[in-house]
Amino acid sequence: MMSNLPIVPVLLPLVAGIVAVAVRDRPAVSRAVALAANVAGLFVAWALMSKVQTEGIQTLGFGAWPAPYGIFFAVDMLSALMVLVTMVVSTATLLFACFSLDEFRERSLFYAFFQFLLVGVNGSFLTGDLFNLFVWFEVLLISSYALMALGSQGYQLQETFKYLVINAVSSMLFLVGIAVIYSLTGTLNMADLSVKLALVDDQGAVAVVAVLFMMVFGLKGGLFPLYMWLPRAYFAPPTVISALFGGLLTKVGVYALFRTTSLMFADNVAFTLPVLIVVSAGTMFFGVLGALSQWDFKRILSYHIVSQIGYMIMGLAIYTPLALTGAIFYIVHHILVKTALFLIAGSVEKLRGTTHLMRLGGIVESRPALAVLFMVAGLSLAGVPPLSGFVAKLMLIRGGLEQGSYFVVIVSLVVSFLTLFSMMKIFRYGFWRSSESVDLDESGAGMRIVATSILVGTGIALGLGAFWALPYAELAAEQLLDTSAYIEAVLGPGALQ
Question: What is the dihedral of CA 465, 467, 468, 474, to 10 degrees?
Fold first, then answer.
């Protein structure tokens, strides 16, 4: 169904970012503009998801060009869920930033680049065109370079340069894949590609392109063995920026892998899915090993980004309705919980001036609310019932057992126990043990707790209210497996005949 609503999640942050540039020397105004745009975006995202649920897939064509020649936005339930959770975590993160960032960084266009990042993220989730997916990736990447370097400290600039080089290589490979796809089919509309790739005579070439896209999105998403850049890069910027990156940016790569695998390369899954099983197991295992070797709160969380992405890819690799539902539920859970954990690390850093566990302690006594928030978020990340992580992992494990994927199921269980161990390590050394350290900066502590509580509370509701939330994930999984509705929504009725 045609609708103008899909463009609004892109227009709102775009306008807010432009206004924030104009008022960059007035931080209070910049904050107000950014927060207003985010809150409005929350309502729009909820309305868009409700519209998809009740009326079906929403599309929007730009100009008078029909599909597949014109540029199209196509919003199914997966896209709508990703936009909604993006607006939830970005709003909480933005609120946290208003009470944690120094004025120099605020005046250095933080709020503008924050909004432009959302333009790229939401555009990536909404677009129905492969080349425009590349364009939206570049929009979010340019904004992320600026945010990562914000403050211009030596370590930040070093890691920003590495991050830029890695993503430049990834973008080059992305363009190569796009060129090959276009040479094979003469189109870049993803719905049209879903039809035409199946008709290509040289399916070997299509399989090669599928692997190329796995590499591209594996680099962007931090998958094994392409993840080594991520933990150091996400440790470098201020913690509030790490929270946004850790919660959102890698998931754009994961989303793109889900979208292209189901829509464009479904005929090649017999070749690609066994590879993804190995990739998911390696991502889980080596990510958690990296986390166990660290003694810094932020570094541990950075390695866990890698580890937890493995669970999402596990669901895609199993490729059944139950496993895909679990994977989609896990993506939403992880965005909420991982962002919350980084914000907790940011609060600890503001209070104690460090995130190194051996220089922390005593936070249970001085900030019990912060300790409780960490315990809930940490246990959810590890998959302890009845929290959202448990619900998602249970579905993934059941899906794996039903398909006989015992190897990846065993790895996922081992990694869950190791994740719990690392969360207890943070709690023991960072929060529980006695310490003579005193809180350094208590300004804005209450509002930082509020911002974090929004995410932790949403995560709790997601777990306890799983029977309410799961139908959305189930519909998203159903639309991934049966792409006919998506194709006909974009190309028109009868496109598959």
Answer: 130
